[in-house]
Design a protein that fits this description.
single chain; 306 residues; alpha+beta; Alpha-Beta Plaits; 13 helices; globular
Length: 306
């Protein structure tokens, strides 16, 4: 049974209909520009369903752990990523240029082929089936932000790259290494040699990826170690002064606004949830403080969400 036949059977959809979706793929995406000027490509409901199916299907074959990937994986996230660097006195952050779009047919096709073969499921799988999987996953030649399969596939394509970075660069120098999506973080209790930047850039280039040099930065305990927006200390992580000021301002604005909108309340609730995951004691103190403005502020925020 071909991959398309299997998908049609699992999704209870007509095979020809699914094929027609892929033949008109440009019409299946909606371009959305976010406030930060990032572009998200939102797939149609049917194409998104096909992409979810792809993840479910390939995940049955790929059961490996991803020790360095801290984004998009169960039990992972920004807080876990930052906590791994607690105790560091020096750190380096690097960014992969156009991360999702850089993962194209060559890299992803190789991943599909090797995963299917290693799982023993290659019987009946033909080259055109690999092409079909690529058609489902890729748009404009690469993965795109907004596709439900992009984060999962990107992390698995990057697994051997992460392993090389660890073995060839980080481990030999006693560095802690994590990757949060397209952001690479290295930390150490000792000085980090600047030459490491060139080594990582060459390694990534060999894997078909480019460094965004404008986002490369060295950090130290004295100036503050910011790991994906979370500040790392010797024993704990913190929000940092900028986010603490933002939390104070947003709580004050909410308390002094007689008619907060549901959208603003939901945004504040999400921000509070993030802050609490990083520094719960500080958030608890601020909630107690601002509850003096008229009762339990958390209850008021939740009420304003609806």
């Amino acid at each position: 049974m071909s991959v398309l036949d299997l998908m049609a059977f699992d999704l209870l959809l007509d095979r020809d209909y699914l094929e027609s979706i892929l033949h008109n793929k440009r019409g299946q995406y909606r371009r959305i520009r976010l406030q930060n000027d990032r572009v998200v490509w939102q797939p149609s409901a049917t194409l998104a369903l096909m992409q979810y199916w792809l993840v479910d299907w390939i995940s049955e074959m790929d059961k490996r752990e991803l020790p360095f990937a801290t984004a998009y994986e169960p039990g992972m996230g920004i807080v876990v990523n930052a906590k791994r660097h607690i105790g560091a006195k020096h750190a380096l952050a690097m960014d992969i240029h156009k991360f999702f779009p850089s993962i194209g047919a060559h890299m992803l096709g190789g991943y599909f082929a090797s995963t299917i073969e290693e799982s023993g499921a290659s019987a009946g799988i033909e080259d055109r089936d690999i092409g079909l999987l690529l058609d489902i996953a890729l748009f404009n030649g690469g993965l795109v932000m907004g596709s439900p399969c992009a984060p999962y596939l990107a992390n698995r394509v990057m697994a051997p790259v992460d392993e090389r970075i660890w073995l060839e660069v980080a481990n030999t120098r006693g560095l802690t290494y994590t990757r949060y999506s397209d952001d690479l973080f290295f930390s150490s209790p000792e000085w980090i040699e600047p030459s490491i930047v060139g080594e990582i850039a060459i390694l990534l280039q060999e894997c078909g990826l480019q460094v965004n040099s404008s986002k490369t930065r060295f950090m130290s305990e004295g100036t503050g170690i910011n790991i994906a927006g979370v500040y790392v200390g010797q024993k704990r992580i913190t929000l940092g002064q900028k986010r603490k000021r933002e939390l104070k301002e947003r709580l004050y604005q909410f308390c002094t606004n007689d008619n907060p909108t549901p959208d603003s309340a939901r945004s504040l609730l999400g921000f509070l949830s993030f802050c609490k995951s990083v520094e719960p004691s500080y958030v608890g103190f601020m909630l107690t403080k601002y509850s003096t403005y008229g009762g339990d502020i958390m209850l008021r925020i939740k009420d304003a969400c609806s």
